[in-house]
Amino acid sequence: MSQFIFTARNGIHIIDLQKTMQRLKVAYNAMKDVASAGGKVLFVGTKKQAQGAVSEYAQKCGMFYVSERWLGGLLTNYHTVSKSIQRLKELEKMEEADVWDAETKKEILDLKRELAKKKKVLDGIKDMAKLPDALFVIDPKREDIAIKEAKKLRIPIFAVVDTNCNPDDIDFPIPGNDDAIRAIALFLDVMSRAIIDGKSGGQSGEGDILEEAEEPEEAVEAVSAEEDEGSSEIKSEIEAKENYREKYQEQYGDMEDEDPR
């Protein structure tokens, strides 16, 4: 991650927002190409801060998502996972018709529990008829199994990489904070707009979001700030980073264009 770090002092690493914007534009254009070719994208983010936004933005652009937990073999052994998906669809049909393949109340209750369990894990991929053409991952370190499976199958990987991640494993890394809720939402929004733009042949006007965030100063709050939600430990870490960033910029603002190395 050294090439993406603006500076590091007292154990706190500050990401270079100029490079965040540069990589975000590269990822946007690449994702747009995937969508314009009819490709399907799987959004992956199972950490608490990302779950809601991952499902929201994936559905917004008509793509698939995994927000609860990654099933080992989801990509490399998709044939087996597809059987569970088929079972989920059968249970949903029973629920819709209110006709259960059971004779007793206990058996019906067991089927309903099975449905709830499968729906929680598989709902975001139940319409995924084949392997995705790309992955967009929040926190590749946490989703290391998904990364390994995608690499094995040579599926392109887009991901937000924080200072504790290895960008060498990612085809299109976007240096950024993967703990802050607002930052996660920003990156998901940009990628979902890239997909919508690609589907429409570039006629949707969604690409304007990158022009709106052209200046890194305008992106600092969205990329680095944390909402009130989340654990106190994460909030403390983010606040410490942000306070240090502000102090550093005030004291060394005239040195921003220099190479920190």
Tell me what the structure shows.
This protein is α/β, with parallel strands linked by helices and 261 residues long. The chain folds into two domains: 2-69 and 131-255, Rossmann fold (3-Layer(aba) Sandwich), CATH 3.40.50; 78-125, Helix Hairpins (Orthogonal Bundle), CATH 1.10.287. Helix content is 51%, strand content 11%. It has helices at residues 17-36, 48-60, 78-97, 105-122, 144-152, 181-199, 208-212, 216-224, 232-252, and strands spanning 5-9, 12-15, 41-44, 64-66, 134-138, 157-161, 172-175. The strands form two sheets. Strands 4-3-5-6-7 form a five-stranded parallel β-sheet, sandwiched between helices. The longest helix has 21 residues, at 232-252. It is elongated. Mean pLDDT is 81; it is low at 213-235 and 252-261.
- What level of helicity do the residues show? 40-55%
- Under CATH, the homologous superfamily of the largest domain reads Glucose-6-phosphate isomerase like protein, domain 1
CATH class of the largest domain: Alpha Beta
Q: Which percent band covers the strand fraction? A: 5-15%
What's the domain count? 2
> How far apart lie the N and C ends?
13 Å
What's the mean pLDDT score? 81
Radius of gyration: 21 Å
Q: How many runs of DSSP E, i.e. beta strands? A: 7
Strand order of the largest sheet: 4-3-5-6-7
* Main β sheet profile: 5 strands, parallel
Q: Which segments are poorly predicted (pLDDT under 50) over 5 or more consecutive residues?
A: 213-235, 252-261
* Run of helices and strands: EEHEHEHHEHEEHHHH
Gross morphology: elongated
What is the correct CATH architecture of the largest domain? 3-Layer(aba) Sandwich
Which fold name corresponds to the CATH topology of the largest domain? Answer: Rossmann fold
Number of helices: 9
| SS-derived structural category | alpha/beta
